[in-house]
Design a protein that fits this description.
Largest sheet: 2 strands, antiparallel
Structural class: alpha+beta
Strand order of the largest sheet: 1-4
CATH class: Alpha Beta
Number of helices: 2
Order of helices and strands: EHEEHE
Strand content: 15-25%
Bound molecules: iron/sulfur cluster
Number of strands: 4
Number of domains: 1
Helix content: 10-25%
Shape: globular
CATH architecture: 2-Layer Sandwich
């Protein structure tokens, strides 16, 4: 077996690590940018419009959308944790 084939495939920061998402409703401004960027991961509360994380451990296919949501959030209410 080729030595390189046993190494994890990486094409960018964080690739190969499990993605976990947290949001702080205390600082959320209910702007809805996260929902626009990653609708499979974020929603808004019908009560006050604050963020609701509907997928705390989204699949790798959602990574770029989650990163986009983080960059769009005006209050830095979203946090990514990588195991
Ligand atoms: S983008 Fe940020 S401030 Fe806006 S709803 Fe999402 S978490 Fe809240």
């Amino acid at each position: 077996m080729c030595w390189f084939s046993a190494r994890p495939f990486r094409t960018g920061p964080g690739r190969g690590k499990a993605l976990k998402v947290e949001a702080n409703g205390e600082v959320c401004a209910a702007a809805g940018q996260c929902l626009l960027a990653a609708p499979n991961v974020f929603d808004q509360s019908v009560k006050d419009g604050t963020v609701v994380v509907i997928s705390t451990d989204p699949p790798e296919s959602e990574r770029s959308a989650v990163l986009d949501a983080v960059s769009r959030c005006p209050t830095s209410a979203i946090r990514i944790i990588e195991d």
